[in-house]
Structures are given as C-alpha cells and as structure tokens.
Write a structure and sequence with these properties.
Chains A, B: Mg(2+) binds at residues 15, 41. 2 copies of one chain form a homodimer. Chain A has 231 residues and is an alpha/beta fold. The first copy, chain A, is 37% helix and 18% strand. Chain A has 9 helices and 8 strands.
C-alpha cells in the first residue's frame, strides 16, 4: 500500500468528528477517488474513528488513517500516515509526540503500513497552524528547501503542503514539487471547485479534498474528474 | 561512501578547534581506524576545517565532515554527516538550522554525499546537551523508540547515541541497537581505554573515539585493536 500511494492523484479526507450521511458517504466512496484519508485536527477519538472506518470498509476504496492522536489508532486501515510538521520551532510536533506513541506501542508498531508525511503548514489562522506553532511566513525557496529535506534527509514518502482552509500559492507548490523525485507532493487546502482541483492537480502530485465534502457535496464530487484534467 | 559506513567499527573524531601535532595525526590516521570524522560542538570554522582536512588528506583513511556550522562546510570530504537532534523540544536542532542551510546551498547540495544522523544526546552537562536543550532523562525504552523512528520514520543511515564526555549505559545502547536492521548505531562518549572500547564495541555497531586523542594518545590508539575484540 505504501507503494500504491505513488499512483494517487486525488483523495478525499474525511473527518471523524463531522457528520456524513450514508448516501453522501456512498457517493464519496464510489466517486472514483484514489483513496480515503481519515483524519482531523481536533475531536478525533477511537470511537468516532472506528465508526467511520466500519462504514468506509463497505467499499473497496483504499482507506488510510492520518494519526493525529495516539489514543485514536484504530486497526484495520490499509495504511497509517504519521504527520511530522517540519516548519515549527516546537519539537513536540516533529519528534516529541511520535516518540511517546512509538514507545507505547513498542513492538506492535506495523512499520510496513506506516508512512511519514513531512508537513509544511502555511495558513497561520488554521487550527493546525495555531496548534503546532507553524512558522508560515515562507517563500517558494523556503518551501523548496523543506521539500529537499523531506526527500533526501528524511526520505519520507510524502511531502505535504497544507494551506488548510484557504487555497494556496500554486507557484510555491510547483517549485517544491520540482525538487522531488521519490517523495510525492500532497497538496491540501481550499479545493472547493472543479477549477481549483484542476489548478492544484497541475501543480501537485496528489490533491486532498476535505471541507467542501461537508459544505457542498456536488462540488466536492466534481473535483474527481477535474483532477484527471489537471494531472 | 554512504554504503561504506556500514562496515565501520571504529572511528576517530577530530575537532578542528583543537591542536594536534603532525606525529600524533600520523599515528591516528595510520592506526587502522575505519574513518576520521571531523567535527566539534564549538569553535568550528571554515579555516580550521580546511586546515585539518588538508592534513588528513595526506592519508588514505576515509574522511567525513559532521556539519555543525553551515559556514564551515568545506568541499573535499568523502562524506558529510548532518546531525539531527531527536530528543529536544527545540525545533531549531531538528529541522530549523538544516532548512536554512539547504535553502542557502540550494541546487548545489550534493545529496549523494550527505548522510543524516539521528542523535540522542544523553549527557545534560555536555556542551552539545546544553546547546540543544536535549531532554536527557530517558530510559532504555525511550531511546529504543527513538531508534525505531530513526530507522522507520526518517530512514536515517545513522542513529547516534551521544554521551559526550561520560561513558554511557551500555544496556541502553544494546537495547536501541536491537531495534535496528538498516540504520547503524554509532556510540560516542567517554571511551578512554581499551576496556571501554571493547565494552562499547560489543553494544554498538560503530564506536567514536574523540577526547582521549588530545589527552592520552597511547590510550586512544589502544582503542583500535580493542574494538576488534568487542565487535
């Protein structure tokens, strides 16, 4: 599964802390998206993660869990993402939480199913930006340097440019991707229409569509075919 | 050269900020050690690094530079180590300095010659411990968790247990090494005799001998054959 993510162009991100009806979930899972990522910045628990997984598991679409809370690690996903925030001065978000989680799970950690994500968080007003103290005042060269580190220094499978809640600067995304050959660039933030999906898919390897699922399902679904145009 | 380090059992670490005579340097370089690492926690400059490299280069022993100061990156080494302190809350020492250095060198970075070292610093009174704000109150399970992260999450070639100035707990070292298969465990700190070299070589993959070179050359040289016994 870790290798399969290299072919992902479009993923939907579902938040266990938000409500989604059965029909909407059916349309998301049958949309042709390459995968479902389950994750959120707040309110993620074991119970709401289990519940969402059991519903997503009725479909064949691959399901990955982005671990934001070590208490909410639910078995049964195809893949587990471990987010590492690269642009913060708070070591807690780079190695601290991770070390405590690894210590707790110790021998049980299924490393073959785990994939590190090197995050650069660029919206200071987002929940994740505030929570992690991300240093967001970065230009294209700054982000490109982080991309090089993700690929060469940490050899992470995913470099994740996160504008969470706003549509970002595609020039920054494009220049970061130009640094990468093995590591895949995920872009997330503000993709709420077919047009933005196409723009983002042209700049990034994989686009992540989240909030719009809960705001306007039809527009969310339109991002899937639009991605094929952009890619 | 990055692959060659997998066969290193013993290395000498030379500090560009400390004096070493020609005869002493000759005996160190001809000792049968597997490599010379050039590096130090303070006072490392471009000039003193160039000077030391030019003297070491008269010998065939491989020479690596451990980059502690981006102003002192001298070309001509066989390998460049990039230290990343894992057990600190100060993001500067995990990703911060590194990002600025990569941004500055940008396209010129010879990634094939670079190797990340995941450091766990365990002596709070050492220069490096104070400088980096290392959280040193760790047990064997804590260090083993960092070892797993170095291998699986960051895929670093080297995991470096650093007791800088004191001889460490070999039980901690042994349990950390037990977690590793691809990543190599370097041990440094307080190896000032053949006996300690043998103990450390039994617990670690590679032992690093530093300070004693400047304090008692004969004892430093005795660590080389002793390592073959321990390994």
């Amino acid at each position: 599964m870790k290798n399969e993510l290299k072919s992902w162009k479009h993923v939907f991100k579902l938040d266990p802390d938000r409500e989604i009806g059965d029909e909407a979930l059916d349309r998301i899972c049958m949309s042709g998206t390459d995968a479902i990522i389950v994750g959120g910045s707040s309110g993620v628990t074991y119970d709401n993660t289990v519940e969402l997984l059991s519903r997503v598991r009725q479909y064949t679409v691959p399901a990955a869990l982005e671990i934001s809370n070590e208490e909410a690690v639910v078995p049964g996903f195809d893949l587990y993402f471990i987010p590492i925030v690269m642009n913060t001065s708070q070591g807690e978000w780079i190695t601290g939480h991770h070390q405590r989680a690894v210590k707790e799970f110790s021998h049980m950690t299924p490393w073959d199913e785990m994939a590190a994500q090197g995050y650069v968080v660029l919206n200071p007003d987002s929940t994740v930006g505030k929570l992690t103290g991300a240093q967001t005042n970065l230009d294209a060269k700054d982000v490109a340097a982080y991309a090089q580190m993700a690929e060469h220094l940490f050899r992470m499978p995913v470099f994740y440019v996160e504008y969470s809640g706003t549509f970002g600067d595609m020039d920054i995304v494009r220049k970061a991707r130009a640094q990468l050959s093995e590591t895949r660039l995920f872009y997330g933030g503000g993709i709420d229409s077919a047009e933005k999906a196409e723009l983002a898919a042209e700049a990034a390897d994989t686009i992540v569509v989240g909030n719009i699922i809960y705001e306007d399902l039809e527009r969310a679904l339109e991002t899937v075919p639009a991605t094929r145009n952009g890619a």
